[in-house]
Amino acid sequence: MLPTVSKGRSASNSRPNPMFLQYLRRIIKKRHSVPYIGRVTGMVVNSGLGEARLMCGNKWILNTPFGKCFTYVPHQKLYYQHTKYHKQTKNQWARDDPAFVVICSLLLVVATSAYCAAYDHSSAHAVFVVISVLLFHFLITGIVLATCCWFLTNAYLREETPNSHVVEQRVEWLYAFDVHCNSFFPMFVLLYVIHYFLSPLLVAHGFIPILLSNLLFMVATSYYHYLNFLGYDDNNDHLYLATVLPFLERTTFFLYPIGCVIVLSPIFILSGFNPSRYIMNMYFSQFQ
Q: Region 249-274: what's the mean pLDDT?
């Protein structure tokens, strides 16, 4: 007897859906899935949407895609453990939900608009500043850094597999961009939100503004590179979490920029360089 196909199913299920089209489709279409319990107490991670809910007392909070921005900041290692389950269920390391990228972009637009409202006097120039910051500070810089990390991991940091029967694994470019977005958000909080409220002090003349500005930038950039390292860590067994990308090795390479930042910061302080004044002068001429 020949096998038959039921009417409720399509015989074309074997045709794979391109990852980029699936990624873009999630912007306008929401799909439900079954949640699983994470290893950290009080955390539920949704395996389909990548959503996380943090329990505070007897209430659940941050149960929307917007909450991922604030939930994953103190639980980056949990997120990358979730990435491992995502690979097992969907056969891809990258998230297929673009909500995190969209929300980060919107938050960056709001923060830049606040700077323009405080320091700019031209609406046309304010629009230019918002667009340029969104493109160059987040998207273009993220594309360049993700491409560099994607190339380095696949070309130099992958383990050699002596067994020819083992499936060769590679880092996806979208996953590298996800790592950039996860690392960017804490830096956004430090250099766009906290910096905004401290900007009257940081752009002033004197040694104290120079010191505080350099320390703030040092902490923000160092934390960015540390979170970037966690995304590729080949020994991510902290908090009893297994390795995220088991086919990578020598991933401590991604920690080297932190050493450069720590070395350069005292030089900038002693030379009188104020990064806050420098960046503000790029967009607002009143700090000349």
A: 93
